[in-house]
Design brief:
This protein has five helices and 14 strands. By secondary structure, the chain is α/β, with parallel strands linked by helices.
Length: 218
Amino acid sequence: MSQKQHIVIVTGGSIGPWAHDQLEGLHPSCDYLIGADRGALHLIRSGYRPQLALGDFDSVTPEEREEIRAGSDQFITCDAVDKDWTDTELAYSMALERSPSQITLLGALGTRMDHTLANIHLLRKGAEIGIRSRIMDAYNEIEVISSTTEISSGPYPNVSLLPLTTEVTGITLTGFRYPLKEATLTIGQSLGISNVLEEKRGIIQIRSGLLLVIRSRD
């Protein structure tokens, strides 16, 4: 599988008008499109044909389920009771199996904090094997990093850093308003909240641990 592949997953969390603009922006670089549960219906009704639709489809009607089946290249269903993973985790795991260079998830955040946190924690799997993954919505772009990472200026001006492991060491920031040099962040600290990228590109270096990078706007 090409290491240049970009996979976009649309799942069944909160999806609003913002998603149409983001899909339009992502689609030219997208090599493989996955719809998870109701996210597949959103894709199809937005004029996209996912290469893969999967899930238990317990959030759609039987008629909508058939619409998803007809509108997708591949349709995979599973039992809602017997499965051990959420639909989003199933989709993300299948995306990882394709060894892409990048995965973007839309609809992975919402009012259910348990699902939101579980989806953010999924990003750890990609970070640990060197596959850059991010979750995007109207106000946030979220990723987990385990090594030196470059970020570019864009629509999300605020950059916050939170440890996903007990501690993250050797944090050095270049191109930010509030620089850090060889800093350590531990869970419960707010030192990394609300920084600002002042250059077109910024560098985040870490020595050990997993760092949650949240870019946001009000």
